[in-house]
Amino acid sequence: MSELQRLVDVRADGDSWIGAASGPAGKRAFGGQFAAQALAAAWRTVDADRLPTNMQLQYLRGGDAGEETTYTVTPMFDGRTASARRVDAHHGSRLLNTSTVSFALPMRGPEHGRRDPGAQDPEALPQTGPPGPAPALPLEELDIRIVDEGTGERFVRHMWWRASVPLPDDPVLHTLIAVYVCDLYMTDAPLRVHGHSMAARTHRSGTTNWSMWFHQPVRADEWNLLETTSPAASRGRGVVTGSLIRADGVVAATHAQEGFIAEREPTAG
């Protein structure tokens, strides 16, 4: 099993589910791992023919990367064609985040959602890795190539990514890895609009809310493009919208995040 697989999976523990720690202890846990593990836990409680349609996650407290996470899944609805679950994530008695996930049977209906990935050939781009430190991520198992374009409110981040290790042919796993990767520095976009970055640590930053809508299947071991922009920021919060686009131009998922981007208070003295 690859490290990526281990980090996004959960194991049963009575009525709860346990998600692996990423390490190192004392470092802030990666929010994308919470989202992927929460989705994994919810997915385990619905019929196999129901696929996730959307997920909304509220981050309440940060977690320790060296500590396993306990997920409690509460059934909210089970109908003829759809199900809904609430998932609460805890470290001990501390509630870290809560999410709702909706699942549904695939049904026939109108379809659209194609985007031209542009002239960029990910194979021809330099391997950049993430735009800053990521100590809790298995970067040796990810190929990440980032191209930033535009300045000010025209800033757009193009993040090409794929898993660089063999993965089993499991659609659930590929979706979980996509969720995991897409949270990588997404809150960077509203700071970049103003010439700052999360890596520079000029601002306190972190995700406070994340919504995802799942449209089409994705393969994590093939090239995918996460294209993000920031339409607005105010009062120490910034919003990011993004599309996850497969290499064939199909929009696989839509993302919206609110991030905390408050200025750091000057150090006394």
Write a structural description.
A twelve-stranded antiparallel beta sheet has the order 1-2-4-5-6-3-9-12-11-10-8-7. It is globular and about 50 Å long. It is 14% helix and 41% strand. It is built from four helices and twelve strands; from the N terminus they run αββαββββββααββββ. The chain has a single domain (3-105, 114-263), classed as Acyl-CoA thioesterase, double hotdog domain (Porin, Beta Barrel). It starts with a helix and ends in a 6-residue tail after the last strand. GO terms for molecular function: fatty acyl-CoA hydrolase activity. Residues 140-261 form the Acyl-CoA thioesterase-like C-terminal domain.
What descriptors fit this protein?
single chain, 269 residues, 4 helices, HotDog_dom_sf
Determine the N-to-C terminus distance. Answer: 51 Å
Q: Within the CATH hierarchy, at the fold level, what is the topology? A: Porin
* Name of the CATH superfamily: Acyl-CoA thioesterase, double hotdog domain
The largest sheet is: 12 strands, antiparallel
How confident overall, as mean pLDDT? 95
Number of helices: 4
Give the CATH architecture: Beta Barrel
Structural class: mainly beta
Secondary-structure element pattern, one letter each: HEEHEEEEEEHHEEEE
Unreliable spans are: none
Please give the share of residues in helix: 10-25%
Measured on Cα atoms, how large is the radius of gyration?
18 Å
Task: Give the percentage of residues in beta strands.
Answer: 35-45%
Number of domains: 1
Name of the CATH class? Mainly Beta
Number of strands: 12
Quick one: overall form?
A: globular
Largest sheet: spatial strand order: 1-2-4-5-6-3-9-12-11-10-8-7
